[in-house]
Amino acid sequence: MSRQTTLEYDWEFGQEELSLAVHSYASGGGLYIGLLNGKTGEQFSDLTVNLPYFQTEVNEAYMDDFDSKNKLAFIKRHELGEVLPEQGYSGYGSYYKVAFDLDRLEELDPDGMKQYRKTYGLKAPERGSKKKQYGQER
């Protein structure tokens, strides 16, 4: 098991250090992203929700609506993906659709993404390709 990077998550009760857990849902097979406590590994929240009757690409998922304002900020702050204009609906709830950056998710949960890529027959990114060079001109 690879050591996972933790990311800061700000919400009404302060700041949490979280890691990501990438899997696929049993029903529908869509992208699942869980948020885990960075120290204990305990479940903190789900970043995504399963809406199997709404079409998504392999890199897309609907964001869980609990604490959605802070989850949107978390996604943007850590460059996890791009919020799309479409929304999904279930009951009275509406859910933002997000196109996640699978290469970025691979940096944060290598084991989970390895299994997810295997499930969908997706190639892993080439080493050294398209790596962001923070603070350097391109």
From TrEMBL:
InterPro entries with a match to the protein in the record = DUF4313 (IPR025462)
Q: Where is the composition biased (Basic and acidic residues)?
A: 124-138
The segment annotated Disordered runs over: 116-138
Superkingdom per UniProt: Bacteria
Offer one Pfam family short name for this entry.
DUF4313
Recorded protein name is: DUF4313 domain-containing protein
